[in-house]
UniProtKB/TrEMBL annotation:
Keyword field: Lyase, Metal-binding
Protein name: Aldolase
Superkingdom, natural source: Bacteria
A cellular component annotation (GO) from this entry: cytoplasm
Family from the record: Belongs to the HpcH/HpaI aldolase family.
Length: 187
């Protein structure tokens, strides 16, 4: 198959790249796919599914993510931490972006991008047929390039050390956005 089309374009990333405002809602309590329809009906661009502070399973994340994409809502998932395997598995499950808490250094940001992106930007392993391609296989190089374009990588600044290193963290190629974790930062 040539000319693989990635039908699950990251609409939030496209909106932000165009300089437009994108808004999202956090998901911590509701575990059903209906949350994606609620977000769509309320006019949100993304869902922020929280795995750091909630006990969602990866299966739940996958189901919500695939439903959200089908409805035109970008599913972002805050992973529990800096674990490369969790980052990769979360993206493989259908998330269109990851939010990584407690990012404090440029080296950590580089590791996050390495886990979230395929060659040449990172070292993520490719699962051929996946939710992002609607389970169709295509040429690996083309699939990886398009999935790299669609994946949104977000780091959370939540400590004094992270604030001091924010400019260096933001400079990492492939780090798309930084969020301020006000609760942890205030503590």
């Amino acid at each position: 198959m040539t000319g693989l089309e990635i039908p699950t374009r990251n609409l939030m990333k496209a909106k932000m790249d165009a300089g437009q405002l994108a808004v999202g809602m956090i998901v911590r309590l509701m575990r059903n796919v209906e949350i994606a329809a609620i977000a769509k009906s309320a006019g949100f661009d993304c869902l922020y599914i929280d795995l750091e502070h909630c006990s969602f399973s990866l299966e739940t994340v996958s189901q919500i993510s695939m439903t959200a994409v089908a409805l035109g809502v970008t599913p972002l998932v805050r992973v529990p931490g800096l674990d490369k395997a969790e980052i990769s598995r979360t993206l493989e499950a259908g998330a269109q972006g990851i939010i990584v808490p407690h990012l404090e250094t440029q080296a950590q940001a580089e590791d996050v991008v390495d886990a979230a992106k395929f060659q040449p930007k990172g070292n993520r392993s490719l699962l051929g047929a996946n939710p992002h391609t609607l389970f169709r296989a295509g040429p690996a190089a083309e699939t990886m390039e398009k999935m790299n374009e669609a994946a949104l990588v977000v780091g959370m600044i939540e400590s004094v050390r992270a604030v001091e290193n924010a400019e260096e963290i933001a400079s990492v190629d492939g780090m798309d956005m930084l969020l301020i974790g006000t609760n942890d930062l205030c503590n």
